Amino acid sequence: MAEINETPLPIDREYIYKRATLHKKISELSYRDAEAALAFLREWAEGKKPVSQLWEEVAAALGAGV
């Protein structure tokens, strides 16, 4: 079983994590700054920015206490 966990995936684990948690981060931001959260949601839905970039920007907005 240990061999399965060590097998590299054909896709970046960090990307998978960011893709899986982006909606939660946007939701969390919506309680602090609904307008910013909506802007991020629109960018994500319209495919204007890559997931990794959006995740970093949302995380920065949360860290800044927007």
Q: How does this structure look, described?
A:
The structure is a single chain. The protein is mainly alpha-helical and 66 residues long. It has one domain (20-66). The chain has helices spanning 2-6, 13-30, 34-45, 51-63. The chain is built from 4 helices and no strands. Helix 2 (13-30) runs antiparallel to helix 3 (34-45) and helix 2 crosses helix 4 (51-63). The mean pLDDT is 89. Helices cover 73% and strands 0% of the residues.
Euclidean distance between termini CA atoms = 44 Å
Query: How many strands, which pairing sense, and closed or not: the largest β-sheet?
Result: none
Radius of gyration: 14 Å
Residue share in helix: over 70%
Contiguous helical run count:
4
Q: Domain count, please report it.
A: 1
Tell me the series of helices and strands, N- to C-terminal. HHHH
Question: How many strands in all?
Answer: 0
Task: List segments where confidence is low: pLDDT < 50 over at least 5 consecutive residues.
Answer: none
Mean pLDDT rating: 89
Shape label = elongated
SS content category = mainly alpha
As a percent range, the share of strand residues is under 5%
